[in-house]
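Q: A reviewer asked whether we had any structural model of the full assembly, not just the individual parts. We don't, so I'm hoping you can provide one. Inputs are below.
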Amino acid sequence: MDNTDQIFLKNCWYVAAWDHELIDGRKLARTILEKPVVLFRGESGKYVALDDRCCHRGAPLSMGRIEGDCLRCMYHGMKYDSSGACIEVPGQERIPKTLKVHSYPVEERGHLLWIWMGDPALADPELIVDYPPLHDPEWRGLPAYLHYDANWLLIVDNLSDLAHLAFVHTNTLGGSEEYAYKSKPPKVERLEKGFRLERWHRNSEPPPYLKKVIPPSDHELRVDRRNCVTMYIPGIFLMETMFVPAGSGKENGDLEGVRQFRNSQYMTPETRSTTHFFWNYLHNFDIDNPNIAISLRDSLIEGFHEDKAIIEAQQVLLDRDPSFRMRTLEADVALTHFRQTLKKCISEENEGGPSSSITSAVG
Amino acid sequence: MDNTDQIFLKNCWYVAAWDHELIDGRKLARTILEKPVVLFRGESGKYVALDDRCCHRGAPLSMGRIEGDCLRCMYHGMKYDSSGACIEVPGQERIPKTLKVHSYPVEERGHLLWIWMGDPALADPELIVDYPPLHDPEWRGLPAYLHYDANWLLIVDNLSDLAHLAFVHTNTLGGSEEYAYKSKPPKVERLEKGFRLERWHRNSEPPPYLKKVIPPSDHELRVDRRNCVTMYIPGIFLMETMFVPAGSGKENGDLEGVRQFRNSQYMTPETRSTTHFFWNYLHNFDIDNPNIAISLRDSLIEGFHEDKAIIEAQQVLLDRDPSFRMRTLEADVALTHFRQTLKKCISEENEGGPSSSITSAVG
Amino acid sequence: MDNTDQIFLKNCWYVAAWDHELIDGRKLARTILEKPVVLFRGESGKYVALDDRCCHRGAPLSMGRIEGDCLRCMYHGMKYDSSGACIEVPGQERIPKTLKVHSYPVEERGHLLWIWMGDPALADPELIVDYPPLHDPEWRGLPAYLHYDANWLLIVDNLSDLAHLAFVHTNTLGGSEEYAYKSKPPKVERLEKGFRLERWHRNSEPPPYLKKVIPPSDHELRVDRRNCVTMYIPGIFLMETMFVPAGSGKENGDLEGVRQFRNSQYMTPETRSTTHFFWNYLHNFDIDNPNIAISLRDSLIEGFHEDKAIIEAQQVLLDRDPSFRMRTLEADVALTHFRQTLKKCISEENEGGPSSSITSAVG
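A: Here is a predicted structure for the entire assembly that you could use as a starting point for your response.
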């Protein structure tokens, strides 16, 4: 037990990094759920995550040296294997078993490195929410990362109500304020570990980010826009987006002329007030034109900076006045369910109840 | 009740801004008494001050959009009228009365916008300390602003003992160290809500800031310098200054050859350790020469930066050691009366006593 | 008693400054044991250390003016003599005895200014640990200073186990990782107020910093390297280093061809998490070549920045998790003794026991 137990769910998988962040022998120092972690790829190809703090005097192991799948602290030379056990102390013969650091389970899926911050005995790789488009050659995209000075749930909130597209992203990802008025979601499906919702914006203008990746001749066409969102605990956002010629009903039949996207976003708490945000926005058309993925990545960066400005401003205001109580709108059904469910999971985890082994993360 | 109630007097008028700060549709985000406030001028010309925090998810309304006299939050599009009531939620038909933010009374006087942070029912505009030179065409000056990283009472202290002119402002506003030794104030008049004092420095050299706005031929003349100060709660400093030819006694008769200034300074707590400082230093001679006002503004900026250096250094030292107890000098009569009076007003306000409606701010 | 009493030993001498820091009338503002101190040299040549906080309104005296051996506060002009007594208040005739600031005993030894932060009545100059090479013309070096964002004991720890030379300073002060494996110290001598240890690295390559100050023709010679360390409370590190032709045994006889260094380092707490670090690394060969001292100073700056990177990273990690408990290695005998001894001295000081007058700082 420590003072983060009431804040974070521990026994679940979090995205720790993109695999490309560990190329060339990099020792990545990354704080996750307020714990200092060092991530590296051993010389055998194995991914390793250890406490980024030597058990001796507390020096960061990320300032150390990779030796095989081991890591040597470069303060007094203590060498740790991938299980976290100290296996060498220069100048000392006997090595007590107490000389060790925590080793976190790590798994790679679709170029994402997932980490388990809770009890390692419960770290079942089957619980990882794999997203097939990330390793399907029919989908193309660029992995990206953004750091937020905000609690991860404020980003979950943001993604739980797409009405914000209308006001925050009018000229980038949204396209018009009409989106907020006309695209009310038909229903929100409550899942055991999250929610699912679908939102249609019929007969709309293609939004600016779409225009950048379609031929100019298509810019004037009207489209039916469909966003279908699934959000899972602890902060996994998956969205299918399609733009269908307006009124064609093509979503139900052949998809000729339909443009589709697959979007995955991962919110991993760095601390209670800062977040690692990973995403990839993939497309399956004009797949041989590399500029489409680049354009989409850049559009998303532009859009996410619009979110970041408002979300970080929220965090500042929330920090300044802990007595502030948010008021709920009708559109908050999804985020309210998510927050309540997460709270329940955290409670159960602390009481040693069912959530301490999440048997079906994907509801 | 919140944790600022013991620190700030709420039921009184504070200067929130100069009116020129709200031209061109600016939404001014300004923290006052540790509350986030957004100030704007509606399209009807009305001044409005609202909580700078949407009641929904806490986004800043200062990132919003002025529509008529209303303000729309640009996160999910909630629209607030000037009373703080939410009058539109895009995509939602019924709007509960609980969707609202606080609206602060605001009044303009002499280009200053005054705000009432306490109970709006007590916000009597008659209590505003209007300063006629600010809207009298016979007086000319330039409004100015400075931000202090210091509690506002340290600035009140500073202004309560003009002896500091001698040491802090020797080469700018003061003119000599002699001022501290020779210009002892005849008496301090205790007011119900502040104090009044007068200080003569007879037969002195014109101080550097005065020399910049008078002809070189007058630089060698000796002057009798009179400063007459009134300070009101919560932090309103008004000063009449005149320079009379030394020994002429002109202060009692015709004012030919006498140079006069009117100086108003307003200390508004941003937080308990930072302050908004507004001022205008006006003159009534050579009124058609605009460079005099510019020179005086620049001299005051120079002088106030001298104060700011020492006052912010005080704040750092006070923050570091809350056990430090200041020692009182004889010259501290005025500041001691002011601090005691303010403390009494705050106590009474918290007990719901007489100060909760200040009937005569100007004693 | 204040909240630093459990952290710092008060009744002992600390290095406050190098004497060259006070030339040209400088008023040095330096925080020592979390107290603001102003140090200056009066016009008589006397060194003075006062509270850097006027007793009146808390303005820093380091913004004041030296007058003789006195210091005048430049806020309202109060003048303090070197005992800390206020001897003038402009505009006030009677000066109460309560108008005063604390005056700290200061003594100069070997260009170091030592300060006594505890009870002045106990400040016996005989307790100062004088280091003769600092004022012996046979030794030459350059005094230097570094600021650490780390608790001083982390630097004491660092210097208590020279094995770190092998890993932190491989290419600067150390020379090889072999040092950690082959130079195990024969024994640590526990002193009443510190420890002494000796460490030989036989038949080794000259380390990089040594190569820079010896002729190229000597770079290939093997040496026996001897480090002999003494550490005293509160944080005084003295080290004799010699490089003897390998196997020659010259350390016992004539020192022809032996290169020697004298190194003194002083860790003075600025706060519980920041440190003033003073040092001089002296040599006694080629004494007329000034570039040797410059090279050694630069090599030490380079090496100390290697320490600083790792020690400041430790401090960040320790601050983040106060529950972390360091694990002890066999090589930690010296640092463990030092920390236990210091802890005992602090306890005794707070109980008014024997340590409140340290009778033999040098054990």
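A: Points you may want to mention in the reply: Chain A is about 20% helix and 30% strand. The two ends of chain A are 28 Å apart (CA to CA).
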